[in-house]
Design goal:
Blueprint: E1 2-9, E2 17-20, E3 25-29, H1 36-46, E4 67-75, E5 80-88, E6 91-99, E7 102-104, E8 116-119, H2 131-145, H3 149-167, H4 179-218, E9 225-230, H5 246-257, H6 259-265, E10 276-281, E11 284-285, H7 286-289, H8 292-314, E12 319-323, H9 331-340, E13 346-350, E14 360-366, E15 369-370
Parallel strand pairs: 3-13, 3-14, 8-12, 12-13
Antiparallel strand pairs: 1-2, 1-4, 4-5, 5-6, 6-7, 9-10, 10-11, 14-15
Helix pairs in contact: 3-4, 4-5, 4-8
Bound molecules: adenosine-5'-diphosphate and magnesium ion.
Length: 371
Amino acid sequence: MYIKNIKADGFKNLKDININTHEKINVLYGENAQGKTNLIEAIWLLSGVRSFRSTKEKDFIAIDGDRCEISLDFDNGERVQNVSIAMSKQSVRDKKVKLNGVEQSGASKLFGNLNCVVFTPEDLELSKGSPDNRRNFLDLSISQVKLSYSKVIARYDKLIQQRNALLKTVNLNDGGPNWNLLVVYDKELAKLGAYISMLRYNYIKKLSYVSSKLFDKISQGRENLDLFYQSTAIRELEGRTDYETRMKEEYLSAIKNSIEADVHSGFTNVGVHRDDLIAKINGLSARDYASQGQHRSIALVLKLSQAYIIAEEKGNTPVILLDDILSELDKKRQGFVLSEIEKMQVFITCCEKIPEIYDGRVFEIKDGRII
Ligand SMILES: Nc1ncnc2c1ncn2[C@@H]1O[C@H](COP(=O)(O)OP(=O)(O)O)[C@@H](O)[C@H]1O
Ligand SMILES: [Mg+2]
């Protein structure tokens, strides 16, 4: 899959951008704060995913402007499709989202058409930082190959919020008026949670398989990487498909066992929102033992594996967005990443022209314009 052209006007500092992109390598280069990441962010938003910078919708529009429009054509191997988002300051809520000219009810409706994998400098901390980031990584990666999963996650998250609010109103001694509702919530949570656990476990199995091969390469055969799913609710996940029966029951009893702690803390302590993706290098937990360089290698390998799994399951390579990543990496890791994505379209931002670009296009960006 590749993007053929991009238009952006009024999105943050971007003005009159209208470029034909190269099928393989596209370098966006320019000094700091000129709009390189904004352009990457525009592509990402057009893939139907919330901003990786968590920009609020009202901040899409240039501070001194009243409307913005971003749009691109991409070729998915079968046909050329167009995705666009337009909005005006007066009515941010009425943004116009279109797929091939047909209006959609929201940007999330674009999801599943243009597939992108983004690498940002923060991602280099994936195996080091908070489990939140790893869960988000997992959930997005799974949604990219199984569209319906994102709705399940959204329902689960909403239910957790409702349950946490409810926990503050119940009473361990006499239950209180909302106790019955809590019982209803818990059944629903167990149903969704068991299903999510199963899908995440299966995804990590694939991820681990692909990642271990890549890690072998990046470490030149010196180290091996294994990935595991750490579940707070279900003891054994290998080979299980009984998410509608026994897994659900086990999950429910794990929630019930922690009800006392939950009521005390006003928070749900057990469930897929507390689970984690564990990486081990040569048998040692990466979070506890890995060096900075090893963390970077893990992050790169995880993201590359995400891209490979999309390519395999969707029969179509995703578009790779590398935002300020290459300058963060040593020559060896730079070379590794570039050679692994050779067959995919890539957008690279950087502050200098990269000399070794042979098959691609270079765009210089200054004050939000391509010059
Ligand atoms: N809503 C907005 N309106 C106008 N300019 C904005 C808006 N949001 C961010 N910017 C500007 O965008 C620039 C940063 O762009 P960015 O793409 O992050 O730069 P870089 O080229 O370093 O990646 C800054 O100058 C910032 O002030
Ligand atoms: Mg930037």
